[in-house]
Amino acid sequence: MVWTEKRVKRFTERKKPHPKVNRIISTAVAMFIFVAIISALLAIILPQVLNSLTSIFENVGVYINNCRDWINSLSNKYPELVKNANDQISTLEIDVNKFVENLLPKVGDLMVIVTDRTFGFLIGIKDFLIGMIVAVYFLYDKEHFLAQLKKLTYALLPERAASGFFRVCKQTNSSISGFVSGKIIDSIIIGFLCFICMSVMKLDFAVLISVIVGITNVIPFFGPIIGAIPSGLLLLVSTPKQVIPFAILILVIQQLDGNVIGPKILGQSTGISAFWVLFSILVGGGLFGFVGMILGVPVFAVVYSLISEYINYRLSLKNMSEVTLDYVPVPQASPKKENKKTTKKK
After folding, report:
1. Which of the listed residues 58, 126, 139, 167 has the most CB atoms within 10 Å of its CB?
2. Burial 330-340 (b: 16+ CB within 10 A, else e)
3. Cα(194)–Cα(187) distance, integer angstroms
4. Nearest-angstrom CA–CA distance, 346 and 100
5. Do residues 290 and 260 share a domain?
6. Strands annotated E in the chain
7. What digits encode the pLDDT tens for the residues 91-128?
8. What is the number of structural domains in the chain?
């Protein structure tokens, strides 16, 4: 909306300013582009994904035969595995029978759960539509809402605390919005790149796997692994010989993303080390699931920068260095050994 509004002003404000007209046009254009992108993605991706899923269900028998042939080849090469497998199968049959016996009385409960999930999906659509309406109001009158928030904050907090609060808000907004928007663009590029490469290599389920890889690539650090594992298993069941080329392709794409595409799009890094990236993903994912894994890194980067700023402030009060490398312990030099001949002469 902001990008559109700057360009609309060139045409509407030649004689006098029209801020409301500019805002209405830019908001409408922004929402239209958003709906158009979502509609285009659904129109392109959904038929392909449905065709892939239909193909999977239609060829279940072929996949089972492939697995049976693979198991037979393993049993011929390693006969000792057959005995262990039979023991495991016997135990599995007992567990499956118990599971079925316990499941039958709960069929009614499962129907209730399915019904609830259906209503939840419909409620989700309703919330999405309401969210779009709320988004229009926020976009159209965002300066007024920000002014109200600023007025309330300065009324309730001391001036210094209120200024610090808005400084933190500005830093948080810059970190999270820049990281998430850049990561989404990066993931879209990776998804298209994966689709093009898989199509050239004539690998199965190119669209479905590209969607999985693109979505999971939003997650830093673990994204490539999370996306490659189910995709590789899908290829292993359908066409095992395609697994190794796919694994090599994913490795090359992720190296390209991590070293070239990602840094170019995201610009400056988050400013935290690889350990803290891993730490923030684990903690964020453990507390808030998928959303926590995505937002864990930028949120932790903000917290990390605020803590660093406070530490540097405390050090400045003590007239001490704020450079971390100045606090690295310097190893003491080992004493020189005297020459034995010199010692004897002395």
Report:
1. 139
2. eeeeeeeeeee
3. 10
4. 93
5. no
6. none
7. 666 666 666 666 656 666 667 777 777 888 888 889 98
8. 2
Residue 295, helix vs strand vs coil: helix
Q: Which pLDDT tens digit goes with each residue over 242-272?
A: 888 998 998 888 888 777 777 677 655 566 7
Handedness of CA 198, 199, 201, 207 (dihedral sign): positive
For residues 231 and 212, the answer to whether their CB atoms sit within 8 Å is: yes
Residue 184 belongs to a domain: yes
Distance of CA 199 to CAs 19, 105, 207, 234, Å? 48, 47, 9, 16
What is the distance between the alpha carbons of residues 5 and 19, in angstroms, rounded to a whole number? 9
**Cα(138)–Cα(334) distance, integer angstroms:** 67
Q: What are 145-171's pLDDT values in tens digits?
A: 999 999 999 999 999 899 988 988 888
Q: 262 and 186, same structural domain?
A: yes
Pick the residue with more confidence: 81 or 345? Answer: 81
DSSP letters of 92-142?
HHHHHHHHHHHHGGGHHHHHHHHHHHHHHHHHHHHHHHHHHHHHHHHHHTH
- Count CB neighbours of 208 within 10 A: 21
Alpha-carbon torsion (24, 26, 31, 36), positive or negative: positive
Q: Identity (one letter) of the amino acid at 155?
A: A
Whole-model pTM over 0.70: no
Q: Is residue 30 part of a domain?
A: no
Backbone Cα Rg of the chain: 30
The Cα 175–Cα 169 span in angstroms is 10
Determine contact, residues 299/280, Cβ cutoff 8 Å: yes
Residue 16 lies in a domain: no
